[in-house]
Amino acid sequence: MQRPILANITALAAALVVIIAVSALWIVNLRMGPPLEAFTGGAMVIYLPAMLLILTVLWVVLRALFVRGRALAVWMPFVGGAVLALIVVVANCGPTRCFVPGNERLLGWFAVGGAGLAALTHHLVLRGFAGEANAT
Q: Model pTM greater than 0.85?
């Protein structure tokens, strides 16, 4: 297997682990509040992981199109992923509804933080492979 393919697969797997961890915290957050209706609760359990997967794929595509080997500061991928998620959350809920306690159970913070962490993890794993290639 070629090194760039292995690096990309590993970076995507690491981002997926972050998405799973954030989704698990999201489910714990949902269970801590008052009980949800069956239809609403089921939809909320699926909504955040699906949104994070879509945002991660969008981040990977945008990174491939615009970065192309340029060095990024460590904070840039986190901010890029978080801004993508912020745009989606604000378009979906408005500027405040998903960021305050209530029916949405702080969905905005989980989405913004999760997308930022997934993008950062993806970037750091790819950067680790690039550093390893330069060292040999």
A: yes
